[in-house]
Amino acid sequence: MTALTMPARSDSSLRPVPWRRMAWVTWRQHRAALAGVAVFLGALAVYLWITGSSVHHSYAAACHPANSLTCTMNFTGRYGITGIMVSILLQAVPALIGAFAGAPVLARELETGTFRYAWTQAFGRWRWALAKLALLAVAVAGAAGAFGVLFSWYNQPFFAAGYAIPFSTRVFNLGEIAFPAWTLAAFSIGVLAGMLIRRVVPAIAATLAVYAGLAFATGLWLREHYMTPLLTSHPNLPGSAWVVSQWYTKGGTFAFPARGSQIVSALSRLCPEPSGLSPAQCLTQHGYTLWTSYQPGSRFWLFQWIEGDWLLALSVLLIAATVWLVRRRAA
């Protein structure tokens, strides 16, 4: 038997699928992950709102003035450790979102082989990847931004009481600008890891490892170099200042750091017996001058924007690299 064949239609006659259709597909395919992020951040937000209300009420009742003994006993003594633990635990939130919401986006498609179907649709593979990643990135960053605003409100009494400074490593990257930027960076690391490794569980592990390395390198070394620190020999710094380093000089020449075994050795040699003087007073009497390199508290928002900007640029670069890999990979 023979059958007549229909002439194939030219690809140029096919109308491209509109972008809004991809938004619906992205929602249908990743609604579970988006709901998980919403529930996760929502539960944390409810906890911060409930405990934050108590923290604000306790500060208003006990901390007038903020440096009083009543404030120390009834506010910082009651809520201080809780505030520290909350901020430390929240450091893991961007990494968890990047690992469990970002890494599976492409890794699951590649691991199960469903990408062969998705990439042959009329939308096109690179538009498919760009639409999914852009929509998910905006949703994740927006939710993280709202959470960062809530955390800053929660932490205000601790700043006002002098129990913490905005530059503190445990709270700086949880601010209104830095927190969504870090969350977006973690998501971008996750999707790129998923594209490169092509398996979900190894991609999750790689995302956690890379994010941890980037966060530690930024907090311990990079952040303090955003702007040149100020230098002073004045002993009394503002409470909001971030002390980068301290050292002693004598006769204009470096003597030893303000911490470590060298200063302990110097104190045991210069002040061997109790004299009623503090270590700083003892060293001053012997001609030593304490120098402090610090970042003033007035630079906090500038530092937030600097960190947010370079993390945003990194995220865009990672997502662009992921889309390029999708386009280059053979189906």
- Largest sheet report: 4 strands, antiparallel
Envelope shape: elongated
Radius of gyration: 27 Å
Strand order of the largest sheet: 1-4-2-3
Order of helices and strands: HHHHHHHHHEEEHHEH
The total of helices stands at: 12
* Topology, number of strands: 4
> Low-confidence parts, pLDDT < 50 over ≥5 residues?
8-14
Classify the secondary structure makeup into a structural class.
Answer: alpha+beta
| Termini separation | 35 Å
Helix content: 55-70%
The pLDDT mean sits at 86
Output the keywords.
single chain, 331 residues, alpha+beta, 4-stranded antiparallel β-sheet, 4 strands
Describe this protein's structure.
Among the domains are: 94-227 and 298-328, no CATH class; 242-295, no CATH class. 66% of the residues lie in helices and 8% in strands. The protein contains 12 helices and 4 strands, in the order αααααααααβββααβα. It has helices spanning 19-62, 69-90, 93-102, 104-112, 115-118, 125-160, 169-172, 178-197, 200-222, 261-270, 279-285, 300-328, and strands at residues 230-232, 242-250, 253-257, 288-295. Helix 6 packs antiparallel against helix 12 and helix 8 (178-197) packs across helix 9. The chain is elongated and about 80 Å long.
How are the SSEs ordered, and which strands pair?
Elements: H1 19-62, H2 69-90, H3 93-102, H4 104-112, H5 115-118, H6 125-160, H7 169-172, H8 178-197, H9 200-222, E1 230-232, E2 242-250, E3 253-257, H10 261-270, H11 279-285, E4 288-295, H12 300-328
Antiparallel strand pairs: 1-4, 2-3, 2-4
Helix pairs in contact: 1-2, 1-6, 3-8, 3-9, 4-8, 4-9, 6-8, 6-12, 8-9, 8-12
